[in-house]
Amino acid sequence: MLRYPNVYGPRQNPHGEAGVNAIFIGLLCAGKAPTIFGDGEQVRDYLYVDDVVDANERALTAGAGETVNLGWGKPVSVNDIVRELKVILGGGPDVIHAAGRPGEIQRIYLDASRARQVLGWEPKVEFADGLRRTVEWYRTERTAPAA
After folding, report:
1. pLDDT at 142 over 80
2. What is the dihedral of CA 101, 77, 141, 48, to 10 degrees?
3. HEC string of 5-73?
4. What residues does 7 pair with on adjacent strands?
């Protein structure tokens, strides 16, 4: 069994109940300010979709019956996401800060050392590169004619 962190990448819908990366990309590309709940220092482990696919493919032939975490084990804050997106996009509106959400967990990132041992897997797409790829996909799809 594979335990996933926050997965992000192309095809994630920026509307409704999507991941923070997709939501912020959609808003910033539209010139709108994203809302950060709390101080923005809450952290998660973000894993690019291609790395998730790689782990799933490896799990088809290795690690029968094993439970392993996937992830970088590197904390990325909401503020980090906004900073990186503004670098990729060449700027953007200031964020809106709102009250923190009651009960929100402040720190979640995973130790994937077992996945390395059992599956021979490790992530390859660094967060900034995955975010850049996701922005490129979003820009292409947003401007593509409807089929």
Report:
1. no
2. -120
3. CEEECCCCCCCCCCCHHHHHHHHHHCCCCCEEECCCCCEECEEEHHHHHHHHHHHCCCCCCCCEECCCC
4. 47
pLDDT for residue 10 is more than 70: yes
Phi, psi at 66, each rounded to 5°:
-85, 150
Distance, CA of 76 to CA of 82 (rounded, Å): 11
- CB contact at 8 A, 62 and 112: no
Crossing angle of helices 78-89 and 127-143, in 10° steps, is: 60
The region of weakest confidence among 32-41, 97-106, 119-128 is 97-106
Q: Domains plus CATH for the chain?
A: 2-143 (3.90.25.10)
